[in-house]
Every structure is written in structure tokens, then in C-alpha cells.
Design brief:
By secondary structure, the chain is mostly helical. The chain is built from 12 helices and 2 strands. A hairpin with a 2-residue loop joins strand 1 and strand 2. The N terminus is likely disordered.
């Protein structure tokens, strides 16, 4: 679990149309499921048995998620929360559910609110969170939306097999403290890819280079005279043949042809840039390479 959403869903994917008219009906199916699930399985279980504070935890989660989402989206009000004449009887469960299921509200804004609502519910449900993630992903699969829910974020799924065989195992392998730089750089690469940022491949290559350095250090092959990624790759190739020469050559070509042109100033020439498809390829190449290297270590 990496923490709350690193940016509003609507802002993270501003350059991508994840919910368009073609899959709007699928989204509404998912939204209705989530409205029922968040109200009945999450918020209602936050209701206290003490009348004076009966709905405090519920209202704090709903109003907190609303405040965070509205702030990120630059909107004053996403939906109204109606107080009762007697304050201690006020409960925002129904208001929250109605907004999530409101087909007139923008899908990207509702997903942003849902991310923050789920983040606000994480701590009291921490023990059951793996089951909650599975349930949400079950709703996503049932609705055939090409999204997944992981680490408090809704994320696009470009290819289901890639997700199952590469992406999910990758995040599992880099979950430990030792891999924090790898994880953070790859999270940044994915965010740059989805927002059309300029540094997706560069950040992914940093994650790959960090992985190579960590393994070299861990195996005792680092001699402190390395001048760049190529020298660390040589450490892996010569250190008990951790990787074969052809694998080392492939990694070196990636850094030389993809990372280095973006990492260095272009002088008076145009700065090299990768297009959307090349950035996606670079991230997937780095994820596959990192997954393979860590599994061998």
C-alpha cells in the first residue's frame, strides 16, 4: 500500500479518454455497484453504537473525501450533504451513494471522489483491504471496464494478459523497502505516460538502472569505479554470469538509444522525444527487465 492517490484521477488521465460514450454504460454499471458497496459494506460499518457520535466517522470520511476531491478538481461542490435539524442525527451515507450513482455527474470526477473516499476508509478496514480490493476489481471485470484498482488508485489496463503476467507481479516484487527508488520512479513514469508528460521513459529507465545497481551491490560485484549503467551491467554479466552477454548488450542498447538522448542536453539540435507508443514500450520493457532481474536475485 503506497498511500493516498498521488493525484486526482481526472487530472492524472487528462490526456486520455478512459470513459467515453462507447463505454459509458459499462461505467454506470460499475458506479451503481460501487455506490451500493461503499454505502452498505464500508460506510455503514463505520456507524457507531453510541448515539452522540453515531455518524461521526461516516461523515468525516465522506466530507473529507469530498473536500480533497473538490480541491484537486478545482470545484466548490461536487454534491450536497444535507444536515438534519438535530446535528447528531446527520448522516452523509445516502448523499455519497447518490453522487456515485448519479449518471449526470462526470465519470472522471466520480472516480476521483471514489479514490479519496476509499483512501479515507483504508485505515479502519486495513485488515480486510485485500478482500476489498478484490471485490472492487470484481466489479470492474463484471462491467468490462479496462481499469483496475490497486494501492488506492484506479489505473488503466492496456492489456489484461500484460497486467496479470507483468504489471501486477512487478509491483509485488518492488513492494519492499529496498526497492523504494525503483517503485517511486516507475510510479512517476506511469503518471507521466498517462498525463502526456515528457519524462516517462527517462523515469522508467532510472527504475531499471536502480535495480541493476541494487543487485550488483547485493551480490558484492560493485567495485566503486563504475561510471554509468553500462559498467553495472558488466558487473552482472561477469559476476557469475548472472545475465548472459546478449542480455547485457540489450540492456546497454536500451540505455544508449532510449535513456541517454533524453537525459542529456541536445545543444543546438532539437531535444529528442519519444511518442506515446514508444513511451509505453519503454515502460513495459523496463518492467519486464526489472521483474526478470529481481526474480533471479
Amino acid at each position: 500500500m503506497t498511500g493516498p492517490p498521488f493525484a486526482a484521477f481526472a487530472n492524472r488521465y487528462s490526456q486520455r479518454s478512459l470513459i467515453d460514450s462507447a463505454n459509458r454504460e459499462k461505467f454506470e454499471l460499475f458506479a451503481n455497484s460501487m455506490a451500493n458497496f461503499t454505502c452498505s459494506s464500508l460506510l455503514e460499518n463505520l456507524v457507531s453504537g453510541y448515539d452522540a457520535v453515531r455518524f461521526d466517522a461516516v461523515n468525516e470520511a465522506v466530507s473529507g473525501a469530498h473536500r480533497l476531491a473538490a480541491t484537486e478538481l478545482g470545484i466548490c461542490v461536487l454534491f450536497s450533504m444535507r444536515p438534519e435539524p438535530l446535528e447528531w442525527k446527520t448522516c452523509f451515507i445516502e448523499d455519497s451513494g447518490q453522487y456515485v450513482a448519479d449518471s449526470k455527474a462526470k465519470p472522471e470526477e466520480r472516480l476521483t471522489y471514489l479514490e479519496y473516499l476509499l483512501a479515507c476508509c483504508y485505515e479502519p478496514f486495513q485488515v480486510q483491504w485485500a478482500a476489498i480490493e478484490d471485490r472492487i476489481n470484481g466489479f470492474l471485470k463484471a462491467s468490462a471496464l479496462r481499469l483496475t484498482y490497486r494501492d488506492l488508485n484506479f489505473l488503466p489496463v492496456d492489456d489484461e494478459r500484460l497486467m496479470d503476467e507483468v504489471v501486477q507481479p512487478f509491483w509485488t516484487l518492488v513492494a519492499g523497502k529496498e526497492w523504494i527508488n525503483v517503485r517511486q520512479d516507475m510510479e512517476g513514469a506511469v503518471q507521466q505516460r498517462d498525463t502526456g508528460g515528457p519524462n516517462a521513459a527517462l523515469l522508467a529507465s532510472r527504475a531499471l538502472e536502480s535495480t541493476i545497481k541494487i543487485i550488483s551491490d547485493r551480490r558484492g560485484w560493485t567495485h566503486r569505479k563504475e561510471r554509468g549503467a553500462a559498467n553495472y551491467i558488466d558487473n552482472l554479466a561477469s559476476g557469475g554470469r548472472f545475465i548472459d552477454a546478449w542480455e547485457g548488450n540489450l540492456l546497454k542498447r536500451f540505455f544508449a538509444e532510449v535513456r541517454n538522448p533524453e537525459a542529456h542536453g541536445a545543444g543546438s539540435f532539437p531535444q529528442p522525444t519519444l511518442n506515446e507508443h514508444q513511451n509505453i514500450w519503454a515502460i513495459e520493457f523496463c518492467m519486464i527487465s526489472i521483474k526478470s532481474l529481481i526474480r533471479r536475485s
